[in-house]
Amino acid sequence: MAGHSHFKNIKRKKEAEDKKRGIVFSKFSRLIISSVREKGKDIKSNPSLKTIIEKAREADMPKENIEKAIKRGAGEGEKGHLEPFLFEIYTKENAAILVTGSTDNINRNSGEIKETLKRHDAKIATPGSVKWLFEKKGIIEIKRDRDNLLLSLIDFGIEDIEEKEDVFLAYLPVKDMEDVKEKLISNNIDIISTSVGFVPKNKIKVDNNNYINLIEALQENEDVEEIYTNIE
Fold first, then answer.
1. Domain spanning 134-200: which CATH class is it, in words?
2. pLDDT in tens, 27-51
3. How far apart are the first and last CA of the chain?
4. Sequence-separated (6 or more) residues with CB below 8 Å from residue 110
5. Of 76 and 54, which is predicted with more confidence?
6. What share of the chain is helix, strand, coil (3-state, %, to 5)?
7. Which of 16, 68, 70, 114 is deepest in the core (most CB within 10 A)?
8. What pLDDT score does 4 carry?
């Protein structure tokens, strides 16, 4: 019986890992589709697509899945309309969350999100009541590969810089993105990725970590692409 139990544990672990991989691949597919629709499938003129594809390959996403997503984004082969969505959410601690993504069935997706929120004592907020707590910013992810890099970045018109273990996240007005990116490239500063996202105007502290379970549950939804929160 012990051996049988061990086999069942291995099987459950494999199923969980396969589910997680499937969710990851679905998210990359949607990011690829959105990027191709926005700026085309040529990676020379769409560097953000190149970055997404590189990250998808690092996650071991099959080549055929990547190619299928590119074709779908370009309107070739399999048809399917993806509709963007944005959910404004308050947790039971009154923390604010924005969830963005795209789906081929907005009614199904809305039902799934609402069910997830119900299980974690969170709720959909009145439109605009959460979004105003955030600002739309350009975000440039920069590799930390040299000494005194932080001091150099201050001179490029960057508003704020968040330090991570291996990277800097530079925040700046969306309108300045291309200009700053060109300055960084001309100074041989290694850009990992560029994007536009929501940055909280102010962050708050919460007394417990219940929100983590909510965010993890939202991340399991294959239609969800980005999650933003004002929690420190």
1. alpha beta
2. 788 788 888 887 889 988 888 888 8
3. 47
4. 85
5. 54
6. 45, 25, 30
7. 70
8. 47
Q: Give the up-direction half-sphere exposure of residue 191: CA atoms within 13 A in the CB hemisphere.
A: 22
2: three-class secondary structure by DSSP: helix
For residues 117 and 24, give the distance between their C-alpha atoms in angstroms, rounded to a whole number: 21
Please enumerate in sequence order all residues whose Cβ is within 8 A of that of 29, keeping only pairs 6 or more positions apart, or say none: 65, 68, 69, 72
Read off the amino acid at residue 152.
S
Count of other CB atoms within 10 angstroms of residue 121: 11
- The domain segmentation of the chain, as residue ranges, is 2-73, 83-131+203-229, 134-200
* DSSP H helix total and E strand total for the chain: 7, 8
Average pLDDT over residues 6-35: 66
- The third-level CATH classification (topology) of the domain covering 2-73 is Arc Repressor Mutant, subunit A (1.10.10)
Query: Fold match between 83-131+203-229 and 134-200?
Result: yes
Interatomic CA distance for residues 97 and 81, integer angstroms = 26
Which superfamily, per CATH, for 83-131+203-229?
YebC, transcriptional regulation domain (3.30.70.980)
The distance from CA 205 to its chain's CA centroid, rounded to whole angstroms, is 22
CA distance 215 to 100: 13
> Using CA atoms, how far apart are residues 145 and 166, in angstroms rounded to an integer?
8
Higher per-residue confidence, 34 vs 160: 160
Dist. CA 176–CA 168, nearest whole Å:
18
- Amino acid 73 reads G
The reported pLDDT for the residue numbered 9 is 46
